[in-house]
Design brief:
The complex is a heterodimer. Chain A has ten helices and seven strands. Chain A is an alpha/beta fold. The longest helix of chain A is centred in the N-terminal third of the chain and has 61 residues. Chain B has a four-stranded antiparallel sheet, with no helix packed on it. Chain B has two domains: 55 residues; 45 residues. Classes of the chains: A alpha/beta, B alpha+beta. The interface between A and B is large, with 44 and 40 residues.
């Protein structure tokens, strides 16, 4: 039976008044702290997810190495060491010549990674070694993301600084997207499936299929293909292992071989789309369509400037998740659209008998030639 | 086939559940007092009780829903990847799941129709769009 309010209205009112006042005072003095704890809790749950991704990535890398590489020793210790690998970028106080310094550091890193993978996977062939290297790199990226976020989480928790935690909480959705992309990349790399980033390599592979190929630069193959009455030097990274090669060196060498007699260069690459755009949409423009640290773009721009060769870009749009996960049908189908665009472009911008370069940029994992 | 690797586990403390229960009971009591106060024409008290009861009820329901929230899933989804093997001569197509070692332009088994060597023509995954974007 509920007691009648009229029996003790004064006491109850007094109690509720007190609760209200206490809550008001608490929120005035501790409101920010309460908000901080709520944000910390949210960051913590995301951090837990990142930890699971990191652990799963490590597990997948180890399992793939054991399955493909048939190592004689347990690879766990070596994989764990690999996941902590760091690369120190060159000093940029005097930026002159930094491109070559960076290239050297990345070359050393590449050789070191390949040697490490060869040691843990002695039975793997060249393509499998490249795929394993990519798998380990994706696991390394997940480890770094987890550790950086954990660092700021713990720092925020230690200092209880709303501003550290707020920045972390605001940027986390984007970081989670990136981490999820690397997580799906792991499976693709481990099994050697083509990824969205390989759109450019796929276009080049379709153009050069059935023609004689030769290696022109590190991990780069070229084929001379007759196309709409022009001589097309089609180049791509050597597949089907996970590989981007050095297309900058490839393009430079072709330009030197032809003494600069190149009517135009068409570069095809995957590019990040804006939200609202459809994956697999094709766009055209000018300039060197190539990502990465910028070394190859620099080399290409230097070479074309010397001979004043026009550079055209054809890009296939996709988001970060699509770029590193197994290739979507829309992106695969876009390769034919790109070929049509290239044909139209060279018909409009070059003459019959001209030499042109068509460079398919991107990771060629799962794509032969 | 799509499978998810792991899920996070969430432990709910008994103290937390007790707080939810106490808040819920007190909120319900406050709402009863509100009704009673209204019947006794004590409108100010009724207002207070309604406010306190509603806030408490909303808070306890929210806290309860938080505990019941589905455990977060790790995005280790393994999408179905399709390999298409094509006969260049007669156009015969064989579509199957991706197998390790497949790559685009790899020579495949002979065509069952014309015995010509077939080739892997495409490897891709199909994505079903969850929702159509109004501004797309």
């Amino acid at each position: 039976m509920v007691p009648q309010v009229s029996q003790f209205p004064g006491e109850i009112n007094w109690v509720f008044q007190l609760i209200f006042t206490a809550l008001f005072v608490a929120f005035v003095f501790y409101g920010q702290r309460i908000q901080t704890y709520i944000m910390l809790r949210e960051v913590e749950s995301r951090l837990l997810l990142l930890k699971l991704m990191r652990d799963e990535g490590r597990k997948m890398a180890i399992e793939t190495i054991k399955e493909i590489g048939k190592p004689k020793e347990d690879p766990i210790e070596r994989v764990d060491r690999f996941l902590e690998y760091i690369t120190i970028s060159p000093q940029s106080m005097d930026p002159a010549g930094i491109v070559w310094k960076l290239e050297h550091v990345l070359d050393v890193q590449d050789v070191r990674f390949k040697d490490e993978v060869k040691l843990v996977a002695p039975e793997a062939d060249e393509a499998q070694l490249n795929n394993l290297e990519n798998t380990l790199e994706a696991a390394l990226a997940l480890n770094i993301i987890y550790k950086v976020i954990r660092h700021f989480y713990l720092l925020g928790k230690k200092t209880l600084s709303l501003y550290i935690i707020m920045q972390l909480q605001m940027v986390l959705p984007l970081i989670m997207r990136e981490a999820e992309a690397f997580a799906s990349a792991l499976k693709a790399f481990a099994t050697g499936q083509p990824i969205g980033d390989g759109a450019g390599a796929l276009v080049a592979a379709k153009l050069m299929h059935g023609h004689e190929k030769r290696r022109i630069a590190k991990d780069i193959v070229v084929a001379t293909v007759p196309l709409e009455g022009r001589i097309a030097h089609v180049l791509k990274s050597e597949g089907p292992g996970g590989n981007v090669g050095k297309p900058g060196d490839g393009i430079r060498r072709i330009i030197e071989e032809t003494e600069g007699k190149i009517a135009t260069i068409v570069m095809v690459d995957a590019a990040l789309k804006l939200e609202g755009e459809k994956p697999g949409d094709v766009a055209e423009g000018v300039g060197a369509a190539i990502g990465g640290p910028g070394i190859d773009q620099f080399k290409i721009e230097e070479s074309v400037l010397k001979y004043k060769i026009p550079v055209n870009a054809v890009i296939v749009k996709e988001d970060i998740g699509d770029a590193v996960s197994p290739m979507r049908k829309e992106i695969f189908d876009a390769a034919d659209t790109v070929i049509q665009r290239i044909k139209r472009l060279i018909l409009e911008r070059t003459k019959k008998g001209d030499s042109i370069i068509i460079a398919g940029i991107g990771n060629t994992i799962g794509i032969g030639q | 086939m799509t499978k998810t690797a792991e899920t996070t586990t969430r432990r709910i403390s008994s103290i937390y559940l007790m707080i939810i229960l106490v808040t819920f009971v007190l909120s319900i009591s406050a709402l009863f007092y509100a009704v009673d106060a209204l019947r006794s024409n004590q409108n100010v008290s009724a207002g207070y009780f309604t406010l306190i009861g509603s806030i408490g009820l909303a808070l306890s329901v929210y806290m309860l829903l938080q505990t019941q929230r589905k455990p977060s899933r790790v995005a280790f989804e393994m999408p179905q990847v399709i390999t298409t093997i094509l006969c260049q001569k007669c156009g015969f197509k064989n579509i199957r799941d991706f197998q390790r070692g497949d790559y685009v332009f790899k020579d495949a088994e002979p065509c069952p129709k014309c015995n010509e060597k077939m080739m892997i023509a495409s490897i891709y995954r199909e994505v079903k769009e969850k929702e159509k974007e109004r501004l797309g």
